[in-house]
Design a protein that fits this description.
Layout: H1 5-18, H2 34-50, E1 55-61, H3 65-71, E2 77-82, E3 86-88, E4 93-97, E5 105-114, H4 125-129, E6 132-142, H5 153-158, E7 163-168, E8 172-173, H6 179-185, E9 190-195, E10 198-204, H7 212-225, E11 237-242, E12 247-248, E13 254-260, E14 267-272
Parallel strand pairs: 1-11, 3-7, 4-14
Antiparallel strand pairs: 1-2, 5-6, 5-11, 5-12, 6-7, 6-8, 9-10, 9-13, 13-14
Length: 273
């Protein structure tokens, strides 16, 4: 059965706008696979651009090889972020409304801004960081249009990658002098996530495909292999996958992420109605 990518894109967009859950697209027997899911995601991107929103980069999903084996994935998946979904925190403090979401969750992530394309075929994190202008601690806010957060990777891709917002903290510039040290620190740094001053999750850089830098390399290669996708280049932002288990959010909460082993300041986010 042929997938109607345009119809699926309109359904996904309408469901998010109306805050109405829908059954996963993959459960309907329409033949949705990753290739057709990226066609849906591309249609959504075109519609957002037609409405005046600019693509600013990509967010990553399934940055875990154990999950790849369980779901028979060959690589990670991704979706676009936009100029109206990415915000930069002032003094590493931001607030965000959650009343227009359905089941929001928060994920601490490392965010990269590229100064150039990642060299094709590279496997060296330090070499990849030579293409990075800066990195920062960020919070990605995700939201599922599917009931009970149950879906397959193709559903994830087709639904904006579940992306609702990205809050970016203070950047650390990457230079020739520090890129090797950063490459060594990215797999080993630790993160603590708290809600209202109570620790709720911990993680480390290795949770993002062994290192956020390795995740960046894998993403660049995956995008290059995807038909009609625009390769990552100068100015692109990349949110490189969650460092802890995703945590459900509610109104009136204060979230804080703190790192050890990587020279980035804590990031605080307050949720409002």
């Amino acid at each position: 059965m042929t997938v109607d990518a345009g119809a699926m894109a309109r359904e996904i967009a309408a469901a998010y706008d109306a805050r109405v859950a829908i059954q996963p697209l993959s459960s309907r027997g329409d033949g949705l696979d990753l290739a057709s899911a990226y066609a849906v995601e591309s249609d959504l991107a075109r519609a957002r651009e037609a409405a005046g929103h600019r693509k600013v980069g990509l967010k990553v999903g399934y940055a875990n090889k154990a999950v790849w084996r369980a779901l028979k994935l060959k690589t990670l998946v991704w979706a676009h972020m936009y100029d109206d979904t990415v915000r930069f925190a002032e003094a590493n403090l931001a607030s965000i409304p959650v009343s227009q979401t359905m089941a929001p969750k928060i994920e601490p992530e490392i965010v990269f801004k590229l100064r150039s394309s990642i060299p094709t075929g590279t496997t060296d994190p330090a070499e990849a960081l030579g293409s990075v202008e800066w990195l920062a601690l960020g919070f990605e806010i995700i939201d599922s249009v599917y009931p009970d957060w149950k879906f397959r990777p193709e559903d994830f891709v087709a639904a904006f990658g579940l992306h609702r917002a990205l809050i970016v903290g203070a950047p650390l510039m990457v230079t020739a002098d520090n890129q090797s040290a950063l490459a060594a620190a990215l797999p080993t740094f630790s993160v603590s996530l708290s809600r209202d001053d109570v620790p709720v999750a911990t993680g480390s850089g290795k949770n993002s495909l062994g290192s956020p830098a390795l995740c960046l390399i894998e993403l660049a290669a995956a995008v290059e292999r995807t038909p009609r996708a625009t390769p990552l280049g100068a100015g692109a932002l990349v949110s490189s996958g969650t460092l802890t288990e995703s945590q459900p959010m509610g109104t009136g909460q204060t979230w804080r992420a703190e790192l050890a082993g990587l020279d980035l300041p804590p990031l605080t986010l307050r949720t409002i109605g």
